[in-house]
Amino acid sequence: MKKILxxxxxxxxxxxxxxxxxxxxxxxxxxxxxxxxxxxKMISLADFKEAKGFIIIFDCNTCPVSKAYNSRIMAxxxxxxxxxxxxxAINPNSPEVVAEESYEEMVKLAxxxxxxxxxxxxxxxQVVKTFGATNTPHVFILHKNNNxxxxxxxxxxxxxxxxxxxxxxxxxxNAVDQLLSGKPVETTKTKAIGCSVKWKHV
Length: 202
What we know:
By secondary structure, the protein is α+β, with helices and mostly antiparallel strands. Helix content is 30%, strand content 21%.
């Protein structure tokens, strides 16, 4: 009886000690969301009726890595939005932690840079929790399949977090090109390099 109780206790501790799954994995179906855009409108993925998928990028105002990717993110949208894969950027950071991450500062940045894609404010941080993004920038490519949005790629934009001139592997471009060609994505996951998400104080 004692051995049985010890075994049961061991199993309970093992189960309790396992980390809960957080965020999406490649192949998961992503849920839609509705967030406030820098133009004041509420945006959801369902608004993009003709989209074949999305390049979701968790990004921010202040991270040096995010700043290094500004022009490359704009170039991704310019290239792929007309092909059915628009960029949708989401700021997950709390202005409680970094004041410059406020919605007002997002509006200023988007205007200054001339963003022609949504830059959404995840005020509750529920969307970043659902996706499981840990860094800025952190990319999730969603592919529309039978009216479901399946996660096809998670990770970095490319292999150069400094400057575009040093890029040798364009992970996001390669993945979207393969999806548009009806081919499976060869590299489905890479390590996102950037600043950590700034979580609200609890």
